[in-house]
Amino acid sequence: MNVGVVTEADWAGDASGRSGIDKRPTDGRARVEETGVTGDFIAERAHHGGPDQAVYAYAWEDADWWAAELGRNLPPGRFGENLHTSGVDVTGAVVGERWAVGSALLEVTKPRTPCRTFAGFWGVPDLIRRFTVRAAPGAYLRVLRAGEVGAGDPVEVLDRPAHGVTVGEVFRALTLEPELLPRLLDAPDLPDGIRDKARRRLGVDSAG
Predict the structure, then answer these.
(1) Residue range 188-204, pLDDT digits in tens
(2) 2-201 architecture in CATH?
(3) What does the alpha-carbon distance between residue 94 and residue 109 come to, in Å, rounded to a whole number?
């Protein structure tokens, strides 16, 4: 479980030159609420945080791939993630899937979209392109029930919607595989902004 610290840098997306992408493991348990994780610094709230992005999860297995790819150590939090999971198929998680973690209840909402702040934080200029091609974006979650979460808590999948639209499919549909866009309309649990974007790209009326 990780929370962001204040980082000041010229690559930070916030107008003040600050970012909360550098997240560090918490001591003990952290409180997770609808607005996010207590103590987690978020600078650019126009694009980060909020109910549909209250918690960000990234898989240890995907982080391990990047560590090998870049030849560097990538400890928990380096992806800007709150939850650093192990043994959970985050990319294959279905939108609307519900996770019980600690005493909190979370719901998968959408994939993370890489930004220049992420590339600046890592010092890898072409990271956005490489991250997109890799298509293992991690998942944002909303908080359905506030609670306490800590290292070692199991992630229990309680419910998986029948539509089957995964985080990975949504990411690929919005980036490299527009032929997948119709699938997004099958996922009512997606945030309205993403569904509206899919409709616009497909030329589908909002009532369709």
Answers:
(1) 999 999 999 999 999 98
(2) Beta Barrel (2.40)
(3) 9
* C-alpha closest to that of 141 among 197, 198, 85: 85
Helical spans, DSSP H, in the chain: 60-70, 116-122, 127-134, 167-174, 181-184, 192-202
Q: State the first-to-last Cα distance of the chain, in angstroms, to the nearest integer.
A: 40
| Residue 127 near residue 166, CB atoms below 8 Å | no
- Assigned token pair, 194: 């993403």
CA distance 122 to 131: 12
What pLDDT does 9 receive?
A: 83
Q: How far apart are CA 208 and CA 204, in angstroms?
A: 6
The residues facing 155 across adjacent strands are 101
Residues of the chain with pLDDT under 70: 13-15, 43-48, 206-208
Report the predicted TM-score, pTM, of the whole model to 2 decimal places: 0.93
Q: How far apart are CA 121 and CA 98, in angstroms?
A: 31
SS3 62: helix
pLDDT digit string, tens, across residues 96-118? 999 999 999 999 999 999 988 89
